[in-house]
Amino acid sequence: MSASEKYAQPDRRPAVVTGASSGIGAETARALAAAGLPVALGARRVGRVEEIAAAIRADGGEAVAHPLDVTSDDSVAEFAAKVTADLGEVEVVVSNAGVTHPGATVDVTTEDFADQIDVNLLGSHRLLRAFAPGMIERRRGDLVFLSSDVAVRPRPFMGAYAASKWGLEGMVNALRMELEGTGVRASLVRPGPTHSDIGNEWPAELGGFVLEQWVRWGLARHPHFLEARALADAITTVVTAARGVHISTVDVDPEAPIETLVEEAR
């Protein structure tokens, strides 16, 4: 078998996107479909993912939608079975479902702290358990995990979220070593501040206070936020890279506003 044959991608690469009812997940589903991948959208807001899947189909793409709660073993298993029946063996998984509830670490209840860990870290592990064994058996596949810039620059009043993303990166970095030589690529994409539904439910007063603390600690040096499509494009680049190429970690940050240089009066 030649090297090109060994590393050939199949013509059909079904992809799963979780947390696909809005924001980065919805835009990623659209971007992957536009790149020619059949996509399965999963989220708890079933009506919303069904609408997005219908819009993708109307644009000529192939898409299905199913309910998914990444905190439930049974839900993940049922979702995986339905997706495989609909689209065939899954070649790409984008683990995007996430949640964050702001608050001082000493005030956040242990239950709330654990809920964020469950969605952001354990939910990714449940997806890994559901889809990675088949990829390893076929000797190919892409696993993309949405991390956050808090994994390298923790932000105040987001302690549980930071802990979940630090844990996620630890898991994925160990996973990469375990997957080496299997043909399965595990990648991290780290969004910086991004316009999305995460944070929209925060009370305005609390959200303003948290942003002030980011500024205080030098974590919000300018006001620009990313659009979700920027992350979708980055994820698409990662999973469509030629085989033999592993884009392992991508940081996507909002560019600062262009400064107008004013020459001093002479």
TrEMBL record:
Origin superkingdom: Bacteria
Keyword field: Oxidoreductase
InterPro entries: NAD(P)-bd_dom_sf, Sc_DH/Rdtase_CS, SDR_fam
Keyword Nucleotide-binding: no
Pfam families xrefs: adh_short
Keyword Oxidoreductase: yes
Family membership noted in the UniProt record: Belongs to the short-chain dehydrogenases/reductases (SDR) family.
The protein, known as: Short-chain dehydrogenase
Originating organism: Nocardioides luteus
